[in-house]
Amino acid sequence: MGYKAASGATEDKTFSWTGLVNLIRPHRTELDIAARPSDGLIVFSAIWGLATILSIAERTWALGGEVGIAIAASQWITLLACLALIARPRQTWLLGLIAAAMAAQYVYRLPVISNNQTIAFFMNSCIVTVLGVEIVRNRSIAIDRDEAYERLRVVARALLAVMYFYGIFHKINNDFLDPNVSCAVSLYDPLARPFGLDQNIVGRYAAIASTFIVELIAMVALYWRRFFWLGLILALMFHYIIPLSAFSWYMDFSCLVFALYVMATPREVSAGLYSTVVALLRSLPVRSPGNAALLTLVALLIVSTLIVYFVAQGYPPRAQKLLWHSSWLVVWAVVGGATMVLLTRAALLAMPYSEGYGNRQPLWLYLFPATLFVTSLSPYLGLKTESSIAMFSNLHTEGGQTNHLLLNPPPYIASYQRSLVRIVDSNDGYLRRIAAGGGYEVKYELARQLRDKPGAWVTYEENGKLREGITGKTIDYPHPSFIESRFLAFKPVDFTRPKVCTH
Amino acid sequence: MNDQNARFGWKTAIIIATAVLAVAGIIDALSNLPIISGFVPA
Fold this sequence. Notes:
The complex is a heterodimer.
Chain A: H1 17-24, H2 39-58, H3 60-63, H4 69-87, H5 92-109, H6 115-138, H7 145-169, H8 183-192, H9 201-222, H10 228-244, H11 251-264, H12 267-282, H13 289-312, H14 320-349, H15 367-375, H16 378-381, E1 420-426, H17 429-436, E2 440-442, H18 443-452, E3 458-462, E4 465-470, H19 482-487
Antiparallel strand pairs in A: 1-2, 1-3, 3-4
Helix pairs in contact in A: 2-4, 2-5, 2-11, 2-12, 4-5, 4-13, 5-6, 6-7, 7-9, 7-11, 7-15, 8-9, 9-10, 10-11, 10-14, 11-14, 12-13, 12-14, 13-14
Chain B: H1 10-31, H2 34-37
């Protein structure tokens, strides 16, 4: 089964300018063709599949077995399942398989540094739990998709709210507000460079201010139905643009946010989006819309790769990684842009939103966003600084001091971040780079890394004393407990001020 | 259903704006590719 034919949808499969114009000048009557509220789950599944592919594409070494055969096998199965899900997005079991595989991988790889993989983990865990509860309760693998949709959308909305809360809160610090080092400027500069505006001070301050404004509006609008459309559109634009800076991979994160928004939107919006997408895919000369979606994606990746290959001929030889990143960037620019336009259109088309948010859902669903909320407070509590939605925030909380403007001094409940060492030299590339920048490490983190790398040694300075050639066996730091080893990970510490933007 | 939304109005303007942003995004991506800048992503 692929995409279900939208009853009443246009059956005209030929391209017409009128159809294109109608995309821009929507008719509210299109809403009548929406089949069911849970059609939003179909679009979500396809975009979730793409977000997972983008996540896998960032870590191609895992496919090659570099981090173990088990992970490689799981990655390949997940990748194939994602492709199948894009072609057959009604197959709930495929969504469940992908969610289970990604959640299991995340647990296996703990502690995980990636913030977007952490957010995805909470959504994947929720998908597995919701589908599992349905199966146990109904004693059948026939899932009630409408009910699953209603439950998942509550969690998707709350995860977005938590993400935006910390997206704002962690950035309330001196260095994010500094136009010379702010992470907002690190993203702004490459975006503005083609237009010659990268050094523009007004543009830099606008980038900083707009980060707060957009994320604040997006967060509030999630729970303010009347203005949901405003938050949605601003968020779509914001998350569409971020990967285009090429400052980091970002595409899986933006795609994940798009997918969560498809779930969080009023039902009529996601159902309207579904109808429009199906109508567009049906205009392609392919039998099923699902196959059309998959073939379009594959064709786009091939064309993008060819474009990048030819463009690359005019520049010095680059690493394979940059060619790969460039190819996917073009794919994102097209797919992300099209999704942004179509979701914006669906949101405006469905206004005013007539229905409420639906029946009250079980309270246990809120455990997923609540856990993310609590664990993301970790940097201020002296716990982990990685995987706390503090990416690209310029936040510093280590050594008992912080650049945060509200929680100063940081209210530590644990002492991990108090014990710091300055890295002087090492035979490990990662630690040598930290040494070259005069950087520090949380001692717990250094001990963890040395124990994970049996051949590595490091020379570091602690409390004015130089300790040379220290290995995982000789470092004077207690072995972590199981819980510590699975949940604590710390960023390198940078005491230079102003603090430059890092991950 | 009413068909008021079919006329050119602020909603249409916003849709056009997002479409323009998408086109600008494609142009920006093509002119700012990592293979051009050589920038190694964070």
